Amino acid sequence: MLDIALLAGEYAVCRLAAGSTLPPALSGGLSDSEVVTVSWSAEGVSVICPAGRAPEQAVVETTWRCLRVVGPLDLAVSATLATLVDPLAEARVSMVAFSTYDTDYLLVPAVRLDEAVTALDRAGHRVLI
């Protein structure tokens, strides 16, 4: 069983053109309940962030809610993410997953949050709202 915290507010999944620089709003001043992740590839820059921090020049998909596995997690532990993704997939809840050094995160559509919480609860996890 995992404890999973629901982070406050809505999140956005953003795409910036390849080679873009990040706006200052993404580089600091985060509260303890916020997370920003950035991935660079040849195709572009992907950003997941609180909706209010979404870059103006980005293609933005909003209204996601962010779930964080209460950690830190040991990097040697395997299948943690699978124990979260599998019940959500069975419940047909779309998700975006990412990890940091310390823990795992899942974004679920805000309109499907109740279904996601129910699926995770049925799988034996505890969602802290």
Question: Can you tag this structure with a few keywords?
Answer:
single chain; 129 residues; alpha+beta; VC0802-like; 8-stranded mixed sheet; 16% helix
Describe the protein in words.
By secondary structure, the chain is α+β, with helices and mostly antiparallel strands. The chain has one domain (3-128): 2-Layer Sandwich (VC0802-like). The protein is built from 2 helices and 8 strands, in the order E-E-E-E-E-H-E-E-H-E. It has helices at 80-90, 113-122, and strands at 3-6, 11-16, 37-41, 44-50, 59-69, 96-99, 104-109, 126-128. Strands 1, 2, 3, 4, 5, 6, 7 and 8 form an 8-stranded mixed sheet that branches. A hairpin with a 4-residue loop joins strand 6 and strand 7. The radius of gyration is 15 Å and the shape is globular. The two termini are 16 Å apart. The mean pLDDT is 91.
CATH class: Alpha Beta
Q: How many strands?
A: 8
Largest beta sheet, briefly? Answer: 8 strands, mixed
Q: CATH homologous superfamily, by name? A: VC0802-like
Query: How far from one another are the termini?
Result: 16 Å
- Give the H and E element order: EEEEEHEEHE
Estimate the strand proportion.
35-45%
* CATH fold field value: VC0802-like
Which structural class is indicated by helix and strand composition? Answer: alpha+beta
**Unreliable residue stretches:** none
Helices, by number, come to 2
Which range best describes the helical content: under 10%, 10-25%, 25-40%, 40-55%, 55-70% or over 70%?
10-25%
CATH architecture: 2-Layer Sandwich
What's the shape?
globular
Number of domains: 1
Can you give the mean pLDDT?
A: 91
Instruction: Output the radius of gyration.
Output: 15 Å
